[in-house]
Amino acid sequence: MFPKKLATKITAMVVMILLILVVTLIGGANWITKTYYQEHVTREIESRAVAHAELLQETADDAAMNYIEEVEAGKHSFFILLDEDLAVQRMPDDISDDFLVIFFEWLNDNQETIGNLDNEPFIDHVETYMITHIPHVWAIIPVNDPYTGTASSYLFLDQDTGELNEARVQLLLLLVVMSIFIILISFFLTRYLTSRVSKPLNDISEMTEKIAEGDLDIKLNIGGEDEVGHLADSIQSMTGQLKTYRDSRRHFISHISHDLRTPITYIKGYSAVMKESTEINQEEWKEHISVIYHEANRMERLVSDLFLLTKLEEGKINLILEEVPADEWLEQIYRRRVLLFDQKSISHELNISEECKGAFLTIDPARMEQALVNILENSIRYTPKGGKITISLSGEKGGCLLSIKDTGQGIDEEDIDHIWERFYKADKSRTQNDSGTGLGLAIVKEITELHGGKVWVKSKPGEGTEFFIWLPDEQDPS
After folding, report:
1. Is the dihedral angle over the CA atoms 51, 54, 58, 64 positive or is it negative?
2. Domain boundaries, the chain
3. Contact, 121 vs 49, CB < 8 A?
4. What 3-state class would DSSP assign to 457?
5. How high is the pLDDT of residue 101?
6. What is d(CA 327, CA 477) in angstroms, rounded to the nearest whole number?
7. What is the pLDDT of residue 435?
């Protein structure tokens, strides 16, 4: 799985970085300690060689020799006294023959340099057979005759660096052990942490695969406020939206099929009757054609409303804004609907507040009239004979408030939030004589919000319904 590969890559990368750091650290520590110890020993043996040479210039008796031997023995060093011809005059008894062979070769190789020495020692670093060992430090300095000022003898010092090298090696070993320990801890800790991260990522990966296969009911329980938790929440939210879209699409197909099937059935049925009729009955044919025409109109309105709503939701409707007097615009719409009120014996009333008389609204009058008419027709449809519809216009918060109140059957509280959805009426009292398309209130909402306004409703079952449309005085340029 991808998360497992990711965990392995992260772990390998962390271990590789730690190895590089450890090798660099140990190599640097080795170079620093080796250089520091060597420089320290070099300075120390140089100062001792000068001090011993000054002592031997004053007196070269046995007491002075014994003193030098004691000093050098305490420093893990020894001295050899050479005459002016570089022949050995005095040296420790325990010096091996192998050392003397190397020593005389060294003297022979550096004879010219030694012969030109004044009062400063010649310092050399002699490598041993151990690669990790610090080189021995050799120093040779002339002991000048106080009367002639020429070299009467030479003092040679050999500084053994074994003790310092042992401390250095122990320090390096300690660093190696600690580095191994740190790498192991880092490996297991990184593996653990990446596994903790990989598990929710693996769950998310499996979830997205199931979503791709069409399972939108899946639940992903990943807690936490970190990036992985937010990613899981976003995917869960996306899944919910996809499910809502899927269900909405299914409902839409179901509703549109139902609304189209009914008029098609009527048109097909009455057409078949007319086609199979052997005699032409003018009255029957006229009635059949009337039904066919009525159902064709229903189909036309449904398709037209659906097309309009789709364009509104996609933002493809461009408003043609005008400044219109609010009271005159509303009165014209009201007068054109008086006949509809009277046909159903519904009493009606138009109330316009004083502050709205002469006020102007910046709207697309045709589109807003369409929204208002949709609400009026909806109120007429659900208001019984003898009921009442009241249209009011008043000023409120930088705009005008339109209200259409009826004494119809009302809306249940749990259904109020859904009336703005497409085909809401499909789940309520759908009848063959109902000429509504179920898209009217959805169109009202889209048109109102496109104008920068708001629409809402108050209703109680059995007491009627009141729709509100608030429109601003001026449109937002954005």
Report:
1. positive
2. 2-168, 247-313, 322-472
3. yes
4. strand
5. 87
6. 24
7. 52
Q: Which two tokens stand for residue 39?
A: 């420089």
d(CA 45, CA 51) in angstroms, rounded, equals 10
DSSP states along 253-273: HHHHHHHHHHHHHHHHHHHHH
Answer CATH for 2-168 from 3.40.50, 3.30.450, 2.70.98, 3.30.70:
3.30.450
Q: Is 117:142 a contact under the CB 8 Å cutoff?
A: yes
Cross-strand pairs, 46: none
Per residue, what are the HEC states of 322-376? Answer: EEEEHHHHHHHHHHHCHHHHHHCCCEEEEEECHHHCCCEEEECHHHHHHHHHHHH
SS3 (DSSP) at 250:
helix
Three-state DSSP at 430 gives coil
pTM score of the predicted model: 0.48
CA distance 138 to 154: 13
Nearest to 53 by CA among 114, 116, 100, 121: 121
Can you count the helices (H) and strands (E) in the chain?
11, 12
- Give the CATH number of domain 322-472: 3.30.565.10
Q: What are the mean pLDDT values of the chain's consecutive 10-residue runs (478 residues total)?
A: 64 86 84 78 87 86 85 83 88 84 88 85 75 75 82 87 74 85 85 75 75 72 68 76 72 66 78 78 80 78 73 76 90 86 89 87 88 88 90 86 91 82 54 58 87 90 90 66
